[in-house]
Amino acid sequence: FLDVLEPLARQRLGADPVFAIRCTEKTIVGLAADDRAFGVVNSAFSPDHIVYMGVAPIRVDKAADLPKAFDEYQAKYGKPPRVVLAKGLGAWCLGTSEKTAGQAHLLFLDQVKIAVTSASFGGPLFMGKEFIDFIRNWEVEAYRSKVSSGT
Question: Which of 25, 49, 53, 83 is the most exposed place for a label (fewest CB within 10 A)?
Fold first, then answer.
């Protein structure tokens, strides 16, 4: 899996090296199992999730699915994904530095906590598309993301 993910992430994120933090917790491996399980984390709960881990993770069944998943995410959101879930393997949080990979990791873990906890209260409630688009295109958040990444 890494032999496909690593060069693809380097190319799409425009960084060499790319930093990745792997998550293999049982809950996360479960979320990567299929589209139904993944549905509880496949959007954003807050502006911080959008800024630091992207609008949503992507999920693939196998390494061969990665290029298409990256292309679809890039076309939809204008940036490459920062979190990749893979069936049976868990997740990778990606960044152009140790700091940005760490930020994606922390926010993804927060995303998982919200999703799992919200199951007891009716399920996840993501931000609406109009709010997600606003945050994605808001200059203040673009600046905040740039400053926090050190670029």
Answer: 25
